[in-house]
Every structure is written in structure tokens, then in C-alpha cells.
Design goal:
The structure holds two protein chains of two kinds. Chain A is α/β, with parallel strands linked by helices. Chain A has helices at residues 8-18, 86-99, 107-114, 163-170, 180-201, 208-217, 220-227, 235-239, 281-300, 310-314, 321-328; strands at 2-7, 23-29, 34-38, 66-68, 79-84, 116-121, 147-152, 155-160, 176-177, 246-251, 255-260. Chain A is globular. Helices cover 18% and strands 31% of the residues of chain B. Classes of the chains: A alpha/beta, B alpha/beta. Chain A binds chain B through residues 69-70, 98-99, 101, 103-107, 244-248, 250-254, 256, 258, 261, 263, 268-273, 275, 277, 291, 294-296, 298-299, and chain B through 3-4, 6-11, 13, 48-55, 76-80, 93, 209-210, 235-237, 239-240, 242-249, 251-253, 257, 272, 275.
């Protein structure tokens, strides 16, 4: 791992050159939200670095809402995704466990992973519902991405974390060496600022090590109470960076279409004989919590929540899972 | 197979050679896959009707036969309803085999007590073929099977054949009798009252509808079987078969990949197993 520096102007000029080889996505802010958009050199000033967080979870780049998984197709252009918050990078690690498992690797997911360069973004600030720290996830990436970006005025520091990241760095125009210790100390200053903001914002939230036990012990009463405001729309699962369940739909000539699905929808576990363990809405509601805080940790040794807070923002019933946790503790 | 070119979602085509009517609601589909198809007894496949849908089934044929596959299907829902209309010559799709089958090598030197109900006899028949092949290494095989009515019993000739094999015995019961039935009446577990089995040197296999799985397990535990001696073939909505889609989650397990065969010991901590 090392740091390199580049003027913002040169960085954007370099990205423009890289467009011949790569599709590039950058975080762009408009009056409503912050989200990934294809990089347009003439609109580089709209790019927002180090600010949480793109509305779209990173998973959407790897797990499209709907795709044919049986037809062969032409290889796609490699991609660079810039400005990924660490909550999404960590969530991707869980998706890797499921989609790149040794026995049944998903060829489409694998091809997209191999084809994608991830440039993480250290969060300098926080959003209303950010709570990564309570899950032991830092608001910056020190691994699992190829590079991380730290913008400061008209300068950009790049934390290069992989061999691929180094190869990209070598293609950047007018990149310059920086003293790693100085860059580290700058990053640490930013990190501790973000950590302070998060600590204040997350006061009262349970520690991630306790969440599984809290959820497991919760009685039906709490699920019925919170599920009363749930309409099974599935927004929480759609926007969640770790929710990755799907349905296979048969098409003529034995083709299969894979479509994202979720345990929040009625009928998710229904079998042909009619039994449906998740028939009642509050059972489905509970299922999502059990999956994230009890079952996934048992299976993959990792919580299936990284504290991005998008489910809270997306819920039309204004269900706030952090309030649920606080009520239980 | 090269893992970089193998597409986990793509079915293998298989021609439907014969359809055997087993009972009013159950048919066996005899298929010849386009390629050799190797599976372990207790593993399952996703069988598809082109353009309609697919559903999980455990083959009912012997795993020793790799050019022909038999799948016994109860008409239950949309896909199985259309399957039941298929005629020989139709081309079907097969994905798999998936999951963990019966660990038959662990049965060596033991008495195997099998409790089956309804269409649960399909996977059991495949297991019985396997056990017959390895009977020199087994002490005894006892099948206790229950069907709703005498007409609902599938593979009727299987019972007399099993009773003619050294070390094998097969018993039947029905929930609702008819004029021709002179055997026991009651749920499958009543047959356990009269079996002679050395429990310490035995394993029990249970496969059938959820209610039978639950009460069968309770009865076996009462008889003195230990949790780890009871093998359950769990039934969930296995959709992808690959441990990904999430439909078959039973607690922390993907039933399709971690099962479908579990010992009771492996899953008893989860209160959701019988739901």
C-alpha cells in the first residue's frame, strides 16, 4: 500500500483518457441525491468526493435487477467505479462469499468482479443514518478495493491498495509521489473527524457483537409492532448492499432469467404443497433481521449489515431499524 | 468440467422416455439425459418444463445407472401439473445434482431403519437401490412406509421384492383403509412399534411430508435413537440449488447446498425446522 498525489484537474484529464478502455462511474450530486453516473469530462465539477453516500448500493453493478443467465453474450468493457464508501465495499465481501463460492461460482458475477476496478472513498462526513462504526466497519477502506480517493482542495491523494490499483496509477498523467507518512497523517486526521461524527450520531446503538443475541431473543411483540407499518414493498432489500436473493424464471428454449427477489415479498418461501413459513408479514419482517444478524453471521462469520442506513432512508413506512434495536436494548 | 466455462444456471437436456402412473396423483418420469448424469443417492435435481418452470426432486432411480434417470413427481402445483401432462418424447431440463445426499458409507455395519410417507418413498427408493448394492456391508434394512390410502401407495411391487431380499424387510400401513386392504391402519410411525432393531447399532432415515418428519423424529427419539443417528431429508422451496437465491433458507443453512439431508443433531437448535 502506498500513497500518490495528483492535481484534481490532471485526475479528471486522466480519467478522460481512460474512457477509451474503461466505462467509468463517478459519484455525482444533484438537487435530490448523490449517485453514480457515467463519467463525463465536461461535467467533472459535479463530482462529489468523500461524501456519503451514493443512493445506489454497489451490489447493483454486480447483480442486475434482471438478467438472462443462460445465453452467452459479448464481453463487456472493463469498468472503474469511483467513490465507493467502505460500507458498500465490505458488503461486497459477503456477496463474494455467496456468488464466488468454490463449488458454484456465478459466471456473470465473477466476470463483472474481474472486470471492475474499485476506487473507494474515505468518508469525511456522515449522513443522517450512517452507522457503519456500530458494525465494526470503518468509514474508510484499507483493503478490498484497488484504490481509495482522498480529495483536498484541488489536490487528490490516492491510497493504492492492489496491484491493479498500481497499474491504473501508472496510467495517470502527472501523478506525483507523496510522503506516505505525511499522507497517512492527513488521512488519519480525516478518519478521526469522521469517527467522531459517527460516534456522536450513533450514541445509544448496540455494539455489533451484541446484535445477533438481541435479535434472537426478541419476542413476537416487537416484530408485530414494527411490521404494522410495513407494506412488504421490499424497498429495504432492494436498496440493501448485502441483500442478494433472487428468483429464476424459465423462458423458452431452457433459458433462465435471474431476477432479484426478497424475503419481504409474500410467497417467498411458499412450497408447491402450500406450506409457507413466512406467510405472516411479521414473520417475513423478522426473517430479514434473523438473516442479517443471526444466520449470515453463523454461516459466513459476518453480519449482513454494514450500517449504510439506506433501508431507513428508503422505508415508506418510516421504519427505523436503529429504533428497533434501541427499543430492544 | 472447466469451472470457468461451466454455467451453473444452464440445464442439461433430457428426453422423456416413459411416464409411469404410480398413483392417482403421482407419476414417474423416465428420462435419458443428453450426457451421462452422475448423482449420489439423496442429492436432488431441478427438473424443468421448457419455458414453464422448474422444481426440485430427488431422483428415485439407482445412482449406479448414469444413462437413465427416474424422477417421481406428485401433482401439487403449477409446474408439476404441467409435468403430468407431458408425453414420451418431450424434452425436459435437468440441473444438478445438488446438495448433500445420504452418507451411505457411514451406514456400513449397521441396521438401517427407514421411515417414509407419501411421495417421500421416491428418494428412499433410490437409497434402497444403493443399500441393496452394499447389502454385504449392512446388518439389516427395514422400511416402514405409510400412504394415505392403499391406492396412494407408490412402487407397490417394490415391497414384495424387498421382502425377498436377504437382510431386507418392508412394512406398509395406510391412513384410510379400503375393502381390499388387510394390513395395518394408521400413520407410518405405528409401524415402528413392532420393528426389531438394535438401536445402538442403527441409523434411522426419515423422508416424507413435514408432519410425518416431525412426529417420526419424535417417535424415533422416544425409541432411544440419538439425535445424530437420525437422518432427515428436509423439504424447502429450493429454487436455484446453488446456495444463493435464499428461498430455501432454514436458519443459517441453505437446504439446497448444506442439505437436503441433515442429521437431526445438525438442525435441532433451529426452532424453524418443522415450519
Amino acid at each position: 500500500m502506498f500513497y500518490a498525489g495528483i492535481r484534481k484537474e490532471d485526475w479528471h484529464r486522466s480519467l478522460e483518457k481512460l474512457l477509451t478502455t474503461y466505462d467509468i462511474f463517478v459519484p455525482v450530486k444533484d438537487e435530490f441525491s448523490l449517485d453514480y453516473e457515467p463519467f463525463r469530462p465536461d461535467q467533472a465539477e459535479r463530482i462529489v468526493y468523500n461524501t456519503p453516500k451514493p443512493a445506489t448500493p454497489l451490489k447493483n453493478f454486480f447483480l442486475p435487477v434482471r438478467e438472462n443467465v443462460t445465453s452467452s453474450r459479448a464481453g463487456s468493457k472493463p469498468r472503474i467505479i469511483i467513490g465507493v464508501p467502505n460500507c458498500d465495499i465490505e458488503a461486497l465481501m459477503l456477496l463474494d462469499e455467496i456468488y464466488l463460492d468454490e463449488v458454484f461460482a456465478d459466471p456473470w458475477y465473477r466476470s463483472r468482479r474481474n472486470n471492475t476496478i474499485l476506487v473507494a472513498s474515505d468518508c469525511y462526513t456522515v449522513n443522517d443514518h450512517c452507522h457503519c462504526l456500530s458494525y465494526g466497519v470503518k468509514p474508510w477502506s484499507m483493503a478490498h478495493a484497488d484504490m481509495a480517493i482522498l480529495a483536498e482542495g484541488d489536490q487528490i491523494f490516492l491510497r493504492v491498495m492492489s496491484e491493479t490499483g498500481r497499474e491504473i496509477a501508472e496510467q495517470l498523467t502527472d501523478i506525483y509521489s507523496v510522503d506516505d507518512a505525511a499522507a497517512d497523517s492527513y488521512a488519519e486526521k480525516r478518519h478521526s473527524e469522521a469517527e467522531e461524527l459517527l460516534t456522536a450520531l450513533n450514541a445509544g446503538l448496540p455494539d455489533y457483537t451484541a446484535t445477533g443475541e438481541i435479535i434472537q431473543k426478541a419476542g413476537d411483540q416487537i416484530w408485530e409492532k414494527y411490521a404494522a407499518k410495513c407494506v412488504s414493498c421490499g424497498a429495504c432489500t432492494t436498496i440493501c448492499p448485502t441483500c442478494s436473493c433472487f428468483l429464476l424464471i424459465d423462458k423458452p428454449d431452457f433459458e433462465k432469467v435471474k431476477q432479484m427477489d426478497a424475503c419481504q415479498y409474500p410467497g417467498f418461501e411458499r412450497v408447491a404443497g402450500g406450506e409457507d413459513a413466512l406467510f405472516e408479514l411479521h414473520r417475513r419482517f423478522r426473517n430479514r433481521y434473523m438473516c442479517k444478524y443471526v444466520w449470515r453471521p453463523q454461516k459466513f462469520n459476518s453480519l449482513a449489515c454494514t450500517g449504510c442506513g439506506r433501508c431507513i432512508e428508503a422505508c415508506i413506512g418510516k421504519i427505523n431499524k436503529n429504533e428497533l434495536f434501541m427499543e430492544l436494548t | 468440467m472447466d469451472s470457468h466455462t461451466y454455467n451453473i444456471y444452464k440445464p442439461l437436456r433430457a428426453t422423456l422416455e416413459e411416464v409411469i402412473e404410480e398413483s392417482p396423483l403421482i407419476k414417474t418420469f423416465v428420462l435419458t439425459p443428453d450426457e451421462e448424469f452422475v448423482f449420489k443417492t439423496g442429492q436432488f435435481i431441478e427438473l424443468s418444463v421448457d419455458g414453464v418452470g422448474e422444481a426440485p426432486f430427488t431422483p428415485s432411480s439407482s445412482p449406479l445407472v448414469t444413462d437413465r434417470l427416474e424422477v417421481t413427481v406428485m401433482k401439487t402445483g403449477y409446474v408439476t401439473g404441467i409435468m403430468h401432462e407431458l408425453k414420451p418424447g418431450a424434452v425436459m431440463g435437468i440441473r444438478g445434482p445438488y446438495g448433500r445426499g445420504y452418507p451411505v458409507s457411514e451406514f456400513e455395519g449397521k441396521e438401517v431403519l427407514i421411515l417414509g410417507g407419501g411421495c417421500g418413498l421416491a428418494p428412499i427408493r433410490s437409497l434402497l437401490f444403493t443399500l441393496e448394492h452394499m447389502k454385504d456391508d449392512l446388518e439389516k434394512v427395514i422400511l416402514c412406509y405409510g400412504s394415505k390410502t392403499p391406492a396412494d401407495c407408490i412402487y407397490k411391487p417394490l415391497f414384495s421384492r424387498l421382502n425377498s431380499i436377504d437382510k431386507f424387510e418392508a412394512h406398509r400401513t395406510v391412513d384410510i383403509t379400503d375393502d381390499d386392504w388387510d394390513g395395518p391402519v394408521g400413520v407410518a410411525t405405528i409401524l415402528l412399534d413392532n420393528v426389531k432393531v438394535k438401536i445402538d447399532n442403527s441409523v434411522a432415515v426419515v423422508c416424507g411430508p413435514p408432519i410425518m418428519m416431525k412426529f417420526g423424529t419424535i417417535r424415533l427419539l422416544e425409541m432411544g435413537y440419538r439425535d445424530e443417528q437420525i437422518y432427515l431429508s428436509m423439504e424447502k422451496n429450493m429454487s436455484c440449488g446453488l446456495g444463493k437465491c435464499g428461498h430455501c433458507m432454514m436458519g443459517e443453512f441453505f437446504v439446497c447446498k448444506d442439505g437436503p439431508v441433515f442429521t437431526y443433531n445438525e438442525i435441532k437448535h433451529n426452532p424453524e425446522i418443522w415450519t
